[in-house]
Amino acid sequence: MIFTYDTELTLRAACMLVNSNRGASGGVDGAADTVGDVAGLDAYLAEFGWTGRRDRDAAELADVHRLRERIGRIWAVAEDEERTVGQVNALLSDTKASPWLTRHAEMPEWHLHLASIHDPLAQRMGAEMAMALADLIRGGELRRLKTCAAPDCDAVLFDVSRNRSKIFCDTGNCGNRQHVAAYRARSRDG
Q1: Does pTM surpass 0.85?
Q2: CA Rg value for the chain
Q3: Which DSSP helix (H) or strand (E) runs through 123?
Q4: Which domains, and CATH codes, for the chain?
Q5: What is the mean pLDDT of each run of 10 residues along the chain (190 residues)?
């Protein structure tokens, strides 16, 4: 399935947000939080082009962290379509998502905005992430939301490969580590 540019970008942003305090070697407790402070949040927002109101305070950061946990819970139940739909619908409702088409000089293609630029950051992010997840569900592609297959990693991934075969995340070099470990095991046994 080919996703619209804004859907894919938003799903990648959601994935990166969830992974901002996850990854290899210990999971949430052992990973550095890349959006643990306002500067980290600023860098994340710049990478994905988030615009609109910014408070740049502890309350805004805490709201984004709560959103991160909520999106992570959606990824955790992605194998159960009914539960996922329920959580996505709740997020759409809670964020008061109200879609309209727009475009900007920096993004001339038509795309959706789902909240006012004056709404709080986490509300705007949640609405857009919920809508991107809704697009994924409507397209029958929910199985593209995965958790890394490395035994020491709890990062999530959004699989955009043609055959949905990606199993390792990009956060901790997990695929390479697992392939090296398998090679070494074969060498020892052979």
Answers
A1: yes
A2: 18
A3: helix 121-138
A4: 5-189 (1.10.3300.10)
A5: 85 96 60 92 95 95 98 97 98 94 84 90 97 95 93 91 87 73 73
Digit-coded pLDDT (tens) for 23-37 = 765 444 456 899 999
* Residues forming beta bridges with residue 111, ordered by sequence position: 102
Q: Which residues make Cβ contacts (< 8 Å) with residue 133, sequence separation at least 6?
A: 11, 14, 74, 84, 88, 91
Which residues share a beta bridge with 157?
146
If phi > 0 it is left, if psi is from -120 to 50 it is alpha, else beta; for residue 173 that is: left
pLDDT value of residue 24:
61
Can you tell me whether residue 37 is helix, strand or coil?
coil
The helix/strand count (H/E) of the chain reads as: 6, 4
How far is residue 106's CA from residue 160's CA, in Å, rounded to a whole number?
24
Contact at 8 Å (CB) between 52 and 184?
no
60 sits in which H/E element: helix 58-76
Q: 139, 126 in Cβ contact below 8 A?
A: no
What are the E-state strand segments in the chain?
Answer: 100-104, 107-113, 145-147, 156-158
Cα–chain center distance at 128: 11
Whole-number Å distance between alpha carbons of 132 and 144: 13
Nearest one of 88, 87, 147, 153 to 114, comparing CA atoms: 88
Give the span between the Cα atoms of 63 and 54, in whole angstroms. Answer: 12
